[in-house]
C-alpha cells in the first residue's frame, strides 16, 4: 500500500498552494522526508547529491546519481522521463559537481527563467557545494529560504498517514518491551541495543518494521545527564538507571518513545524526579486539544515544574511523521514557550520530557495524534519509572 | 581503549601540517567522522548544528547544543572550557541560528582575525544556513574549500586504528553469516535485516558491535538492478537472488562487505556474471600493493570486464575508516580510472564490484588494509555466489 496517486496529488497541490502564498515560482527539495512525501521515493541514496524540482505547474523533475535513478521508478510515482541520472564520473570530484549537471538539466527542461525559487537551507543533505553549484548554474534564479515549506505541509496527517503512524506506534511499543526485557545485571548496552533493533526491524503482527532515523539511545548511570551518546560495551550495574529512547518505524513513519528503567531499587532522587515528570506529562496530555496554542500547553508543563523548583530549558517535544537519518523530527512545531502554532486534528507530536540533571536524569515520552477533541496515544508502555529486578 | 592523548596529538599535528601547506589559518570541522578523529567526540548530536574550530596553534574549540555540550567531555579529549553549548532557544528558529552564536564565541575567543579559514563544503552536516551564519558573523574570514583536508589525513591508518578495523571486519563477517542464514523460502527482507542488525550490534567474542553508518542493503530479484533500496516486508521466492551489503562497525570504524545469495539454483546468466566478477576481484586484489597507482589497479578490473564485453561505469571502491550516517566512505580515494593516488601501507579500502545490470545484478566485495607488500583481508566470507537451498 504505497500512497495512492490521489494522496500524492493532494500533497503536491497543498505544497503548490503554499508556494503561491509565499510567492515562489519553483521549489528545490532535498530533504529526503520531503522527497518521499511528495513522490513516494524511498532509498538510501541521500548521501549523494539529489534533488526534486517542483515547478508551479507541470510534473516535477527528480535528479539523482545514475545508479539510483535507474531504480527510482520502483518507489517514486513519476514518469520515467522525469527521473534523470547524473553520470558516475561526477561523484567526489574536486572540480565538478553533480549539481552543475543538475543546473544544466533544469535549464534544458525550461526551468531557468527568472523567478523566486525556494530552497531548504537547513536541510541536512543540501551541501554548501550543492547550493553554490545551483547559484552558479542558474543565475536567473533568486534562491530564497523556503522556511521548511514542505515540512509545514506535512504537519497535519491524512487518514492514510495516521494508519501508518499507528503502525509505527505499535512497533515502538514492542521495541520498548524488548529493550526493557534485555536489561539485567551485567548486560552490555550493545546487547540491549541489539534486542531493540531486532524488534524494530521485525515489527509486530501485520506491521513490518522499517529502519528508524536514529539508533536506540541508552543514556545510563551518570552519563544520563546527556541524551545523545550511543551504545557501547559498557555493562549495567545493579542500582543504575538507564533511559531508553527509540522509535518504531513503519514505511518511513516514526513514533518515538522514551522510558527510564531502574535496575534494582531506584534511588530516591530519581524516583522523585520520575514522579514529577509523569504528573507533568499527564497534565500536558490533558491540555492538548484542537484550538489550544502550543505555547500555552507548554505553560502547563513549565508551571508544573516550577511548583517543584525545576527548570528545563529544552523543548518538550516536536512534530513527527516521516523520518530519515539523522533525525525523526519534522523541524516545524517545537513545544516551547515561543511556539504559537494552533493545534489541529491530524497533527502528530512526540511529547518528550527529557530531564537531564547534573549526574543523573530520566526520560519519559509519548507519541500522540491530535483527534477531534483531544489526544490519541500512538505508543503503549507503563508510564512510570520501570523497575527491573534483573537477576 | 579510546584513542590515547598521543594518538590524538599526532592526528592534530598532521592536520595542522596539511593546513599550513594549504595556507590555512584555521579550519572549521563539521563532518562527524572528522570531529571524532580529531577529538574522540562521539554522540548522535550531528543532526543539530555543531562545529570544531581548529586554529593553527592552541587548543581547538568545540561548539554544540547545550544539552550535548554538557556530556561531550565524556568522549572528547578537550578541556571543559573549550566545549561551549549554545542555548536551547536557538534551536529551529526562523530568525536566529546556532552559528550566529558560534560566530560570536569564535570572535570572543580571539579567532576573528583576517585569514584563510578552511571549511567543508561537501560535508553532510554543514547546512547552507550554518555556512551563511559564519559568513555573516565573521566577515574577516576568507572561507575557502578545505577539499576534505581532514578526510585525507585519515587515509593512512595508525596501528591503533588498524586494530579497530580488524575488529570491524570480524563483526562484518559475523553479520554476513547471520544474514545468509536468515535467507529462506518466504523469508521477509525485514526479518533478514533484523538478524543482521542483531549480529552487528552484538559483535563477536571480544569485539562489541557499534551501529553502522548505513542499514543493511538487500537488493533482491529484479530490483537488484539498483543498489540502495532499503528493506521492506517483501518475501523471497525460490529462484531469486538477493545481494547483502552491510558493514561491521566497531567503535565507529567500519568494514563493509557484500555478497550475493541465490535461493535455490541460480540462473545461468547470474552464475556467469558472478564468476566473472569474482575473477576480476581476485585480479584486483593481486594488483593492490604499495607503490601502485589506483587508476592502474582499476585498469586491471576494466580490462578484465572488457574481455567479457562488460562495462561498469561506477567506481570499484573507496577508502574506509570512521563512519557516521549517512555514509561509511571517507570521500577521498575512489577506485576508478582518474584517481592517481599512490597506494601506501595503512590505507584501508572497500573494493566493491557492484554489477547492476538491467533487471538483475550481483555484488561482491572485500574490505582490505594495505600492508608492506600487499593486502590484508579484513573480512572473511566465501568469495562466490552463495547458494542457499533454504527449505
From TrEMBL, chains A, B:
Its domain of life reads Bacteria
Q: Which InterPro entries match?
A: Creatin/AminoP/Spt16_N (IPR029149), Creatinase/aminopeptidase-like (IPR036005), Creatinase_N (IPR000587), Pept_M24 (IPR000994), Peptidase_M24B (IPR050659)
Pfam families tied to this protein? Creatinase_N, Peptidase_M24
Start and end residues of each Creatinase N-terminal domain: 11-156
* Entry's transmembrane regions: none
Q: Start and end of every Peptidase M24 domain? A: 163-372
User: By its UniProt entry, which PANTHER family does this protein fall under?
Assistant: AMINOPEPTIDASE, XAA-PRO AMINOPEPTIDASE P-RELATED
Name of protein: M24 family metallopeptidase
Q: What is the lineage of its organism?
A: Bacteria, Bacillati, Actinomycetota, Actinomycetes, Micrococcales
Amino acid at each position: 500500500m504505497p500512497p495512492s496517486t490521489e494522496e500524492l496529488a493532494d500533497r503536491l497541490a497543498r505544497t503548490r498552494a503554499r508556494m503561491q502564498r509565499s510567492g515562489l515560482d519553483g521549489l528545490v527539495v532535498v530533504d529526503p522526508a520531503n522527497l518521499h512525501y511528495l513522490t513516494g521515493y524511498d532509498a538510501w541514496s541521500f548521501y549523494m547529491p539529489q534533488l526534486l524540482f517542483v515547478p508551479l505547474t507541470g510534473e516535477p523533475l527528480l535528479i539523482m546519481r545514475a545508479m539510483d535513478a535507474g531504480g527510482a521508478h520502483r518507489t517514486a510515482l513519476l514518469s520515467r522521463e522525469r527521473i534523470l541520472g547524473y553520470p558516475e564520473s561526477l561523484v567526489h570530484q574536486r572540480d565538478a559537481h553533480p549539481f552543475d549537471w543538475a543546473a544544466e538539466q533544469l535549464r534544458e527542461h525550461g526551468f531557468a527563467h527568472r523567478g523566486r525559487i525556494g530552497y531548504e537551507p537547513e536541510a541536512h543533505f543540501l551541501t554548501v557545494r550543492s547550493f553554490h553549484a545551483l547559484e552558479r548554474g542558474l543565475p536567473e534564479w533568486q534562491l530564497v529560504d523556503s522556511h521548511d515549506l514542505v515540512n509545514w505541509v506535512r504537519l497535519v496527517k491524512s487518514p492514510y498517514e495516521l494508519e501508518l503512524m499507528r503502525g509505527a506506534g505499535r512497533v515502538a511499543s514492542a521495541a520498548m518491551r524488548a529493550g526493557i526485557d534485555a536489561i539485567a545485571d551485567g548486560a552490555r548496552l550493545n546487547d540491549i541495543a541489539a534486542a531493540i533493533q531486532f524488534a524494530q526491524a521485525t515489527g509486530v503482527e501485520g506491521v513490518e518494521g522499517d529502519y528508524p532515523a536514529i539508533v536506540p539511545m541508552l543514556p545510563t548511570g551518570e552519563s544520563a545527564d546527556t541524551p545523545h551518546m550511543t551504545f557501547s560495551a559498557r555493562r549495567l550495574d545493579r542500582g543504575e538507571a538507564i533511559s531508553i529512547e527509540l522509535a518504531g518505524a513503519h514505511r518511513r513513519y516514526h513514533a518515538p518513545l522514551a522510558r527510564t528503567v531502574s535496575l534494582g531499587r531506584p534511588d530516591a532522587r530519581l524516583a522523585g524526579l520520575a514522579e514529577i515528570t509523569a504528573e507533568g506529562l499527564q497534565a500536558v496530555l490533558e491540555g492538548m486539544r484542537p484550538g489550544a496554542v502550543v505555547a500555552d500547553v507548554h505553560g502547563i508543563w513549565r508551571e508544573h515544574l516550577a511548583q517543584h523548583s525545576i527548570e528545563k530549558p529544552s523543548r518538550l517535544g516536536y512534530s513527527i511523521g516521516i523520518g530519515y537519518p539523522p533525525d525523526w523530527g519534522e523541524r516545524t512545531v517545537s513545544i516551547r514557550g515561543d511556539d504559537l502554532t494552533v493545534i489541529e486534528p491530524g497533527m502528530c507530536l512526540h511529547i518528550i520530557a527529557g530531564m537531564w540533571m547534573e549526574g543523573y536524569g530520566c526520560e519519559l515520552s509519548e507519541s500522540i495524534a491530535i483527534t477531534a477533541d483531544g489526544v490519541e496515544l500512538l505508543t503503549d508502555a507503563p508510564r512510570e519509572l520501570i523497575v527491573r529486578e534483573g537477576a
